[in-house]
Structures are given as C-alpha cells and as structure tokens.
Design goal:
alpha/beta; Rossmann fold; Nucleotidyltransferase, domain 5; 8-stranded mixed beta sheet; 7-stranded mixed beta sheet; 19 strands; globular
C-alpha cells in the first residue's frame, strides 16, 4: 500500500520509525504529534489484519473534536467497515478495531477489560499515573492479530510468543504530551534528565513548527506571549511555572536506609495522618518529628476498599510503633449517615468494635489551607536553621520524604508527587500572560497532599492532644484492663 505522506519535521520522522515499546513525543503546540501518531496506527492496522488499538484522551469533548476528527481526515474511508461513536469503536475492513476511550469517565475495571496491541494517549500530561499503569499493562494482550507470511519470509528471526508459539505483532505505548512540571510521571519515567528514568523509553522532543501553520500567527505569539508560555508551548520545555504552589528541592527526598528508619522510629515523635476516600483512594501518612525536621516516612494509598480493610492494613503497618497523636480530615467527624437508628460518622466507623478489624482513633486536623500552605513552603526552603537528617549538613530543608523503593515498598511516592503537582487556579489569560487566583486548582489530585497538609498543620500548633478512651466491650479497652491489673501485681486478700 502506498501511504503517500511526507514528514513535516525530524521529530515526526523519529516518532514514526521508533521501535521502542514505550514512546513519548513531547513538545509545544503545532508540531504534528497527533498526525504522526495516527499515521503510525494506520500503517499498523493496514499491515496486520485483526490488529487492535486504543486511542485515549482525558475528556470526551477533546477526543471527539480533535483526535477523532484528525483520524478520519487521515485514514482512507475505504479501509473502514464501520464506526460507532456511542459504543466507542471503529472496525477496519481487515478485522482490526480501534477503540476510543475518554478517561475521565473510565473506571479501573473498564481499563482492565481492554486487550490491545497498541495504545496512543493524546494530551497524556492530563491523565493520572495509575491510569497510565493500567493502560500500559493492557498493551500486547491481544493475541488474535495476524502477521502476514511475507513479513515472516522477509524476517526469519521474527519474534514469537513463548506461550502460544504464534508470531507477535508490534506492540507500542505512545504518549503525546505537552510540557508540564518536572514531578510529572511522564517526565520522571522518560525524560533524559530525570534521575528516575526507566530503561527502554524513547523520548522525542519537538518545538512549534511554523511550517504547519500560519507564520504570521507564530510571529504574533512570539511577540505577545509571556516567556513562560513561549518556553512551554513554543519551545516545548518542561519546568516550573508561576502556577506552582510548592517547590521541593531534591535534598528533601531521602533514601530508605536501615539506619535512617531505625533512627526515625527510636528517636522521632511519631504521628499518623488519614485522608479517607469512598470513591477516591484512602491515604495514610506516617510522620516523624526528629531534631526539628519533619519526615514523612511511610505511605498507605489504596482505592476501592472498605474501612475494615483500611483498618487492618494501617494497623499492620503500624505494628510496634507508638504515636504522639493520629489526625484525620475533619470532614470525617461529621455525622452524615444513619446507623442503628442514629447518625454516624466515618470516624466512628474506624472506631466501631462491631467491625472485624482493629479499631483506629483519630483527632480532627486543622484544615486552614492558606496558613498551612505557607508553613509547608517555609519547611521546604533550604535554611541554616535546619540540619540534614542523614548528613547533618547545614543549610538544609526542614521537610523530608523517605522514598518508595523496591526494597521499601511502603515509602512515599504519591505524597511528594502530589505536593509538587498542586497549582493555583487559572483565572484568565490576558495578552499571553496568565493570571492566577490564590485558590488551589481542585482538578489536581490531592489525597496524599491533604495528609501532608494536615500533618504540617498539627505539628507545632500547641493543640492539646486529647487521649480518647476506647469504647466499653472493645479489645483495646480489655487490653487496658489487663495491663492495669498486671501493673498492680498479685493482690493479697
């Protein structure tokens, strides 16, 4: 088949010929990212009968009005058998299927139901890392694709499945992304400058290509837009912006050495902080105050589980530790639901001894966000007041996170990533200059960030810690009774 297209620029050519399993085509506006991604899909579907691909974007409107329209402008109509927008798939005449998915309404079960050879995510900077991880796990799952005999003859070493013995079709995950902040999972996983870069990723960088649009528009934007906008959307550079609420230095990330963890648990004042989620993930952070520093040293972040499960898991992770206090989102203390003829709160569900799980007791945290935001920024600053908890060197930050690693799977990841992700709400753009409100953009995920806020807010608040007694007939109350009797020693009648 003669595909009859020309590359507009070198990054397009680099993307088209890439054979990496995971590819990122990142850059500013107007450089042909979507075009070349659809051409790749066209060639794969044309060459491999029964090939299955997925085209995804965060919102339905963007998927329908941009990505899908570009698709049908490029793919010849004679190659398509049918298109059903309501069901979200396009059937090719050679048996292949292209699925269309907007991710803002897709749950994890929907994502896990796909068996595909190829996935393209447009505007990938808008999606969550967990969504990417599930989609990435579905790539290469479809085994019904056919590899033509002419290709097998031309390439005798064509790879075959070790499970079925059948020839394998090419499988790719392609992320099309505009630049975002350096904490973003796309940057961390794939950018050449990232210290956490994974093996096997191919990063392609493209700038605004004046040949793909009006040169007058390009020159007008260069003159009118502010430097941040030009850096991001013309030159395609990743970096921090005026919208960022917090800036964290690399020194605030700690390696989970046995010596450090032992020091935290033996010498630190320990705290737990909970942010409960019904449909959203439930997060618990463990925090230590040590030598004037605040160190978040453990993280629990689990969606879609009942309170009994959270109680068991959090208790298991807390084994052998004593806490100065445990705090939680103040909203869970509101009696909003009925139970046993009365009103009941989520906090009471964590204490209820009728549930077959260890009881957990929390105090309401301070939710004054603006005051806490400044306290966080002060703690993130490198200052002579602070000594690094590992090296003892001054100056240093005052807030730290112990990283999650393969050897320390309960370390922090969501907490410091969401901290850096928080941004101010965009009010308007005037002559290329963005104006932001002091309010936080609520579209940014914040479950672990809220735990961080609560922990920082309650440390040093001089709030008296209320020692709550466990309910009568609870195991905790019975254990207190036994401990009291043993402390008194044998009683002489």
């Amino acid at each position: 088949m003669d595909y009859n297209f020309k590359f507009a620029n070198p990054p397009q050519r680099e993307c088209f010929y890439s054979t990496a399993r995971n590819i990122v085509f990142s850059g500013g506006f107007n450089n042909g990212k979507t075009f070349i991604a659809i051409v790749r899909n066209l060639v794969l579907h044309a060459e491999f009968p029964n090939y299955r691909s997925l085209m995804a974007r965060q919102t339905f409107t963007a998927l329908n009005k941009t990505t899908m329209q570009t698709f049908f402008q490029i793919v010849p109509p004679e190659m398509i058998l049918s298109h059903n927008e309501q069901k979200g798939h396009t059937v090719w005449k050679n048996g292949g299927i292209t699925f269309w998915l907007h991710l803002d309404k897709a749950d994890q079960n929907t994502l896990r139901g796909f068996e595909i050879n190829n996935c393209t995510v447009d505007q990938a900077e808008e999606i969550e890392e967990g969504t990417f991880d599930i989609l990435d796990s579905r790539v290469g799952r479809w085994s019904g694709v056919e590899v033509p005999q002419r290709l097998l003859n031309a390439f005798p070493e064509w790879p075959v499945s070790r499970f079925t013995g059948r020839p394998l079709a090419p499988s790719y995950m392609l992320l099309l992304s505009n630049p975002d902040l350096p904490h973003h999972f796309i940057y961390r996983k794939a950018h050449p400058d990232s210290e956490e870069r994974l093996q096997g990723w191919h990063w392609i960088h493209g700038q605004w290509d004046p040949q793909l649009g009006s040169s007058e528009t390009y020159l007008k934007l260069i003159k009118e837009k502010d430097p941040e906008w030009i850096s991001r959307y013309i030159r395609g550079e990743w970096g921090y912006s005026d919208a960022a609420i917090h800036t964290m230095h690399r020194e605030s990330l700690l390696e989970p050495t046995a010596e450090l963890l032992s020091k935290i648990k033996s010498k630190g004042s320990l705290h737990r902080i909970l942010d409960h989620g019904d449909s959203a993930p439930t997060c618990c952070l463990w925090m230590a105050v040590l030598d004037g520093n605040i160190i978040f040293y453990r993280e629990y972040y689990v969606p879609g589980r009942p309170i009994s499960y959270h109680r068991k898991e959090i208790t298991a992770l807390s084994e052998g530790e004593e806490y100065s206090a445990s705090y939680a989102d103040p909203s869970i203390f509101k009696k909003a639901s009925q139970k046993d003829g009365g009103f009941w709160s989520v906090a009471e569900e964590y204490q209820d001894d009728a549930i077959n799980a260890p009881e957990l007791y929390f105090l309401p945290a301070d939710n004054n966000e603006f005051a806490t935001r400044n306290r966080i920024n002060e703690g993130l600053l490198i200052s002579e007041r602070n000594a690094h908890p590992v090296t003892g060197i001054r100056p240093a930050p005052g807030i730290y996170f112990v990283k999650k690693t393969p050897d320390y799977p309960n370390g922090c990841s969501h907490a410091y990533q969401q901290l850096q992700a928080q941004r101010k709400l965009l009010l308007s753009t005037v002559n290329g200059k963005n104006f932001y409100a002091d309010d936080r953009d609520k579209n940014v995920v914040d479950h672990a960030y809220d735990c961080t806020r609560y922990g920082i807010a309650m440390h040093g608040s001089n709030r008296p810690v209320e020692k709550k007694r466990p309910p009568v007939r609870s195991f905790a109350r019975f254990n207190q009774f036994l401990a009291l009797q043993m402390s008194r020693g044998p009683q002489v009648g």
